[in-house]
Write a structure and sequence with these properties.
Radius of gyration: 23 Å
Structural class: alpha/beta
Distance between the termini: 36 Å
Number of helices: 15
Shape: globular
Helix content: 25-40%
Number of strands: 19
Strand content: 15-25%
Largest sheet: 6 strands, mixed
Length: 458
């Protein structure tokens, strides 16, 4: 049996053909994504290339797909408090593979309502209140949302005591809403899976059609999820394994793109020292963070603003005009390095992006003095003992020394809980999103292929 796995990316449409009997990838191809015209054009071009490379028609038995075309899945998260329910809603949406446009909290004023009404988002995640906790503010925010004529789906993940009233308000306003479990049933407890699954189903049923994916419906068996969620699924399968196929343990994926740097980690990250006290919102097993100011092309200027000349220069073997190099990449988002100096400059940018993105992803320790001694408190994940780091994205795939880029995540500050001595792997053939799709139905095969194809670098 042959399965064709398709990733309708924001820039490229990537095809991966798997021979399920041999449990191996037998062909890959890609073409520019043509979402402005018809995604079918890019898909057909990539399929034609694959046919030429194979010397025969791929003739897949099944075709599964994910998509981040036309900006992927854009969401707004609404909660009651910035560091609790709003943060829980944000993490739930990120874990579903969304790009978060904005997070709102407390009662929604007119200014916020106007922003929400005019936002280009695809879905709103509406949360608030722990179980049997605050319901008044939740109901007031529901009434406010009902006045602005929303046409997009709203995922309701609120305190169940307020749910009946919220449903009544949204129903009377003819809003398109989906009820799911409360994303934060108790203080600092995240319950994301129900909301994530609902978001994925909405994406499958509605969003992809709105973006013109219906033009390839007759070719594929279904758009299963947004591309970032496919990467999370692949990482989770590889990390945890199954009853039949052992996983490799806790891992991190660093995905450096033109617009963002995404970091995924699989592992609870509980304190490794039993004298450390955990505080704050508990982290999910599978965590994703997206840094929109750390990109190689679209976000190159904001990366420069976040770091500066000195920090980028620290990763360069020879002196270069930093701002000039940044402007060259912002001015030409399809810029491809050709000279040694250009490769070195991209590698320096990628090193800075990796360093900042991982520092923001991992947990931290803070020291406080009690009456008799200092006590350490942990917020976020302790990933100091994490042993597997996988790099993906064009700059890593084409880098002369990818491990030099990835190793910039090492941080010797004892209060920052980065991996200290990991092994590094590169997704050289961009298989993670494809394996995430495959793992939905054939996890054992997906894990075995990843174990073979992800290449260790040193």
């Amino acid at each position: 049996m042959r399965i064709l796995l398709v990733d309708f990316g924001s820039t490229y449409t990537k095809l991966t053909l798997v021979d399920m009997d041999k449990e191996e990838i037998i062909a890959r191809s890609s073409a520019i994504t043509t979402v402005e015209k018809d995604v079918r054009i890019g898909y057909d071009e990539a399929y034609k290339k694959m046919k030429e490379d194979l010397g025969e028609d791929p003739k897949p038995d099944r075709v599964l797909a994910c998509s981040s075309a036309a900006g992927g899945l854009k969401m707004i998260a609404i909660g009651l408090t910035k560091n609790l329910t709003a943060e829980a809603a944000k993490r739930s949406a990120l874990g579903a593979g969304a790009r978060i446009l904005k997070t709102y909290y407390y009662e929604l004023p007119e200014k916020d309502l106007e922003e929400i009404k005019n936002s280009p988002c695809d879905i709103i995640l509406f949360s608030g209140g722990t179980e049997h906790g605050n319901r008044i503010n939740v109901i007031n925010n529901a009434k406010s949302l009902a006045t602005i004529g929303l046409k997009i789906p709203v995922v309701v993940a609120v305190n169940s005591d307020a749910l009946e009233e919220v449903e009544k308000i949204f129903k009377e306003a003819n809003m398109n809403y989906y009820v799911t479990e409360n994303v934060m049933p108790a203080v600092n407890i995240l319950n994301a899976e129900s909301a994530r699954e609902t978001i994925r189903k909405i994406f499958m049923d509605r969003i992809v059609k709105a973006k013109g994916m219906n033009n390839v419906e007759d070719e594929i068996d279904g758009i299963l999820m947004p591309t970032p969620q496919a990467v999370i699924k692949a990482a989770q399968a590889l990390s945890l394994g199954t009853e039949k196929e052992k996983g490799i343990g806790d891992l991190m994926v660093v995905d450096i793109g033109g617009a963002t740097t995404d970091v995924h980690s699989i592992g609870y990250g509980h304190p490794t020292d039993n004298t450390v006290i955990y505080e704050g919102l508990l982290e999910p097993l599978a965590k994703r963070t997206v840094e929109g100011d750390l990109g190689m092309r679209y976000s190159a200027l904001s990366l420069y603003e976040a770091s500066g000349d000195e920090e980028i220069s620290r990763f360069l073997p020879s002196r270069q005009n930093i701002l000039e190099g940044i402007k060259k990449r912002v001015g030409d988002i399809k810029f491809v390095p050709k000279t040694q100096r250009d490769f070195e400059f991209d590698a320096a940018m990628a090193s800075v992006a990796t360093q900042h993105a991982v520092n923001r992803h991992v947990g931290v320790l803070t020291r406080r003095f009690t009456k008799t001694r200092y006590v350490y408190y942990q917020t976020g994940k302790d990933l100091t003992n994490l042993k597997n780091v996988i790099g993906t994205g064009g700059v890593l795939v084409h880098a002369k020394k990818p491990v030099k880029i990835l190793s910039s995540l090492i941080n010797n500050d004892p209060e920052t809980l980065n991996p200290k001595d990991p092994e590094y792997f590169i997704d050289k053939d961009y298989i993670l999103s494809a394996m995430g799709l495959l793992s939905m139905e054939y996890p054992d095969v997906a894990i075995r292929i990843m174990k073979k194809d992800l290449r260790e670098v040193n």
